[in-house]
Amino acid sequence: MSPAEARSFDVPFIEHDVPSVPPTGARRKSSSSADGRSIRRRISRACDQCNQLRTKCDGQHPCLHCVEFSLQCDYVRERKKRGKASKRELAEQAADEALAAAPTEEDTNQNDIQDSELVDEDDHSVDNRHGQVGQFEDPTFDLATNGLSNFLVGTDGTQQDSSVSTLHLSHASPSSHMSPLIPPPRNAPISQAWYPLSSTSEPGLPGFSFPDLAMNALPLSSPSGVRYPVLNEVLPQLLTFMPQSLPGDLLETYFSRNIYCLAPLLRKSSILSTFRPRTCLASLLYSLLLSAAHTSDHPHMTSSPSARLDIIHRLRDLCVSSLRPLLHSAVPGTLDDVMAYVHLGTVTSASEFKGSSLRWWNAAWTLARELKLNIEHPDLDGEVREEMRRTWWLLFIVDRHLGLCYNRPLAILDAQCMRLYHPLTTDEEWASDAVITPAELIPDAATKLGVSYAVTGNGIFGFFLPIMAILGGIVELHHLEQHPTMRLGTTSNELRGHLSTCLDVYERSLNVHNDNGGVWQFYAAHLEHVLKILLAGYCDPLDLLLASDSLLATTEFIACTTHALRAADAVGRILTLDPELTFMPFFFGVYLLHGSFVWLMLVDKLESDVAEEVRDACETVVRAHEVCIVTLNTEYQRNFRRVMRGALVGMRKGIEGIEREEGRRRRREIVGLYRWCAGGSGLAV
């Protein structure tokens, strides 16, 4: 790990580096003294753009900085005087405010006429406006007291961060320069019951309010050379450290070839629209660009060895600094904030700082519950509801996945999900510009309500969501069996029987969805067999290596070996169809690892007596680990690949005596870092 890589996960610190020499043109001539030295003059006032960016301004109109970066140069902000205002000034200000607050009868009549015209015009508009979700007033955590560094820095992923679980997560008010929480849908007709002109609360939805329809009524204008107007708000900050073509390219990368995008939460057609894009918070936009910056092949990203890391570091700083819920406890959170936490958690989970990612995921889970993303809101627009469904179910998936990764309890319960539909659009439909049918008008929507164990499609919500629901039960059973005071007795076998039935339901539904050998089917088959190994209780590698040789002859372990063989066969087919393992690299590694522990045990105990099919299976899983390291390099995969490769080499050479025992000791030492026993932290080393 280089210092430059580690720097991207330090406590956020925002820097704005502005070139001191313009890329084109010449600087204005500076005044000189009699002896030829330049005279540094202090300007009385900076322009609005330089004041916002905290950059040096020459006080001209337009100033040199705005000319260089094609920014609009204005001096319209209010002039403020230092010190306390005099009594006369305060009295005059109060009188002016009182006069302005008392409209004349003519003004009142004119305003009534304008409001009536506005309502009539909007009744015929085809442009909906999304509502702003969730005003919550439960301040439970103050980062000014507890410290931002305590929230961001740390590597112990064994326990949930209590400060984060009670963090008051919030969002800028609609009057701020940030965009509202939920974007304007572009395809559905307006319903005055859903989107009133004034910001009012809907009956039955306490805390839900809706912005003025007059906002964003006209197409957005873009600066010259900017492909996507959605970036207009954050462009001035981005152009201080990246070329003008890069933000648009990163946005395209996010929706096309981004392995850090776990599931499509946002509609591509809404974000990339050049006429009326979805309104987004700055934090969400920065998180989208941060996610894409890890995989972008833009020439600027490879222009120098540190270019990509520098861009990632700057984008992460901007994203964290603009997360209003993280910094200001008095403003409520929004759906955009949840998505930003998801992106931050994803890029951190894929790094060497896996334990630190739980800070972001805990924030996302907490805010999602506060915003009630786990229930249907019929009065909201169809696109908004689908965004909420996709966000909640992705958090459900990640919760189960990280429960296995870090040997931690679940944060989202099945009971909290029974009032929410699964995503009602396929990934292809979601990527298109088609109108979304409300759940109430879909005949079989009731079958997609709550937790389900059956495969419904080839996307992450079609085949991966059901298997994660089963994994949640296995994780809960695992923790119950390791409880220091509770004893399950025969209940343990009953729960195993129920979970085994759920896996049978999954297997039958997978066979029904025959996709003529699609790669997703082999991923699903591999997951099914790995979960059957986990259900048998073989999840801790050190316990397997230290187990008695008599375990190899038990019926349970023989059945477990059969599932490991079938899982290895699925891995071989996956490598044929997806040689770089790019289909789901974020999730695949840990299931590949757990499916390999059985092979490590057999090679460690049997040495030269291993059957040929076992050797082939071991070679297959080692090759898969090597591909995973190239696609998404993480330490646990490097360590296990080294341990497994060393065991295979020792088996082929027939190493005996002291050298053999030394190899076994090294294997136990390395796999002992990753424990799934009581008190173990899994991959969070």
Features:
single chain; 28 helices
Strand content: under 5%
Number of helices: 28
What is the number of E strands?
Answer: 0
pLDDT averaged residue by residue: 77
Name the poorly predicted regions.
3-34, 103-222
Q: Percent helix among the residues?
A: 40-55%
Q: What composes the largest sheet?
A: none
Question: What structural class results from the helix and strand content?
Answer: mainly alpha
From the spread of the alpha carbons, the general shape counts as elongated
Q: What gap, in angstroms, lies between the N and C termini?
A: 15 Å
Order of helices and strands: HHHHHHHHHHHHHHHHHHHHHHHHHHHH
Radius of gyration: 29 Å
Biased composition (Low complexity): 92-103
Domain Zn(2)-C6 fungal-type: 46-75
Keywords: Activator, DNA-binding, Membrane, Metal-binding, Nucleus, Transcription, Transcription regulation, Transmembrane, Transmembrane helix, Zinc
GO biological process, one term: DNA-templated transcription
Notes on the protein architecture:
The protein has 685 residues and is mostly helical. Among the domains are: 1-81, no CATH class; 143-236 and 247-259 and 280-296 and 304-412, no CATH class; 521-671. Helices cover 49% and strands 0% of the residues. It has helices spanning 3-7, 48-53, 64-68, 87-100, 105-123, 143-146, 148-152, 162-165, 235-238, 245-256, 268-271, 282-293, 307-321, 324-327, 335-349, 357-370, 382-405, 427-431, 460-481, 491-512, 519-535, 541-546, 555-577, 585-594, 597-606, 612-631, 635-653, 657-671. The two termini are 15 Å apart. Residues 46-75 form the Zn(2)-C6 fungal-type domain. InterPro entries: XlnR/Xlr1 (IPR051439), XnlR_reg_dom (IPR007219), Zn2-C6_fun-type_DNA-bd_sf (IPR036864), Zn2Cys6_DnaBD (IPR001138). It comes from Lipomyces tetrasporus. The chain crosses the membrane at residues 583-603.
